[in-house]
Amino acid sequence: MNSSLKCSTFKKLIFPFCLIACLIVFYIPVNAQENPPKPFNVKVVTLQNLNFGTFCYSNSSGEVIVNAQGVRSYTGDVIPLSSSTSAALYDIEAIEGTLITILPGPDVDLPGSATGILKLSVGASDPVSPFFVTLAAGTATGIDKMVRMRVSVGGKLTVKGVGANPPGFYGGPFNVTFIQQ
Hints:
Blueprint: H1 2-25, E1 43-48, E2 55-66, E3 72-80, E4 88-95, E5 99-104, E6 108-111, E7 117-126, E8 131-132, E9 139-140, E10 146-159, E11 176-180
Antiparallel strand pairs: 1-4, 2-3, 2-10, 4-10, 5-8, 5-11, 6-7, 7-10, 9-10
């Protein structure tokens, strides 16, 4: 009788032992779904407006161009006068590694203080679009690897001559879209 009691106890313990042994031998790591990516927290602040400076022109047409570095050039019958010029300057804050594409808006008509309209076309950027936000190009601002960097954008004014564009001050808003990926 004593041996049958040992046998039934052994039978009761063999199944849990085999189950645990199989789980240990055939252990396959299972990974859960990864966390969703951090939300894009991109901030863009305008630091400086696009400025073509002072220039004069005759009856012919021409162009005044300010590149992304703020250097002015001209074509046609445009004569630049001594004054300061600047590219549009933006401060971007984004997570390191974010891909930014700059999408210039459509050409814009800038009304003059008298009558007339100059046509503005948004130009190239520095850094050249598309670009990655990198620590090497900017400065770190926190533990989430947020990086702040400067981006400048140039533009081109199309001048149609004194009859179409009388002397005066011309200005207005234009759109630049920063697309982050």
